[in-house]
Amino acid sequence: MIQQGAVGDLEAHADSAGTLEKTPTNMTDAKLGQTETHKTDAVFGEITDAGPDYRNVGWIGTTILMMKTQVGLGVLSVPAVFDTLGIVPGIICLLIIAVTSSWANRIVGLFKLKHPEVYGIDDAGYMMFGRFGREFFGLIFSLFFACVAGSGMLSFAIGLNAVSTHGACTAIFVAIGAVVGWGCGSVQTLGKMAWIAWVGVISIFVAVFSLTIAVGVQDRPAAAPPGTVWKSDYKIVNNPSFAQASSALTSLVFAYAGTPAYFNIVAEMRDPRMYTRALVVSQSITTALYITIGVVVYYYCGSYVASPALGSAGAVMKKVSYGIALPGLIVGVTLSTHYTAKYIFVRLLRGSEHLSGNTVKHWVYWLSCTLGVAIFAYVIASAIPVFGSLVSLVGALLGTLLIFQPMGCMWFYDNWSEGKEKKSLKWILMVCWSTFIIIGGTFLTISGTYGSVIAIIEDYRATGGSAAWSCADNSNST
């Protein structure tokens, strides 16, 4: 470890992300057993071999982390969205949201390059709106990803119920998801978690493609009435109510809701200038997957498509699909737990040597953060009735608010002064686009929240809600 005032010259260079790398150049440093690479990061401070390397994610690892952050619960709801909207409007809406979210994701990378001191969306909020912006966006970020983690725990429990034919109390399965998510989510750096993301991405991909093949070769979906000649009742264009359409659009936004976590990912990249490459690959594959799964599954299942979609192909394939998807579901819990805990952890220890050093205080704070997030997510998953509709509400109220409006404001923050000097056509078009993102995001937030509230009310009327900490099999409806 390089000490202050150590003998020897140091050659230093700074990259565009605000990292200062120092490499010993004489034999004295080598004899003293000092680290070969010493980095000073604008967020994490001094990074040496004595502590976790928070700047060690390559562009391929970044791609995988992005894909797993996006592809999870969202892909399982796309066929049901197409059932609500119809195939053609569903694809058009999905592509529009894919393009707008890709632009928003791109803004995250550009903002990080211009402002190396930014770690999370709360830092961007502070720069734009002061202390209120920091606390507001920090709170929304934490609540959103904690709820996503809770949703993942519940989905993991559904999977265990499906595979085991309700072999244990559902509350126990949710608790297992919480414990595993906490353990895996306590890995210190995203660089080390990239391999976990690989497992999750492969698991989800294989599960959904197995489902896609199964619905294509079977004679009817699992929920279709038996004893009749089956013909899919898919619709090219459907006529949903405003509330139904709003809820469907919110589900598509939720499928691309990884954007706020991209701040955390780019902050741990070795070279943030490779961010755009990773983003293009990730968004392209994700969008192609969503369209393929959505169209094929809905085409063969029609209005009898299940949500989540893994239950659409019958009892046997339901077990197979969920069995394959279980690692992917738990990795989703892991990443959501990690993102939330890391945000809190950095807020608590930023500017301290304990942030990047393997000290007792470092580990106490880190494990307390991951444990606290896991417990909070577990309570949400177990205690709140009508959880599926509630997650839709959280996605509408919090997810859209994190994906669109802040990114439009970030563009204005970095580029508004440019127009005072020269109002070019490009600048005028970008002003119009950023304004559209802010207004459109606000509309989706309001309309999606309305649609989700209507869905919760209808769910209560139909079923009376669900019991807290229930042992009942929650896989029957899927």
Automatic annotation (TrEMBL):
GO terms for cellular component: membrane. Residues 57-451 form the Amino acid transporter transmembrane domain. GO terms for molecular function: L-amino acid transmembrane transporter activity. The chain crosses the membrane at residues 85-104, 136-158, 164-183, 195-217, 248-267, 279-300, 320-341, 362-384, 390-413, 425-446. Residues 1-32 are annotated as: Disordered. It is found in: Membrane. It is a multi-pass membrane protein. Coiled coil: none annotated. InterPro entries: AA_transpt_TM (IPR013057). Keywords: Membrane, Transmembrane, Transmembrane helix. Belongs to the amino acid/polyamine transporter 2 family. This is Putative amino acid transporter.
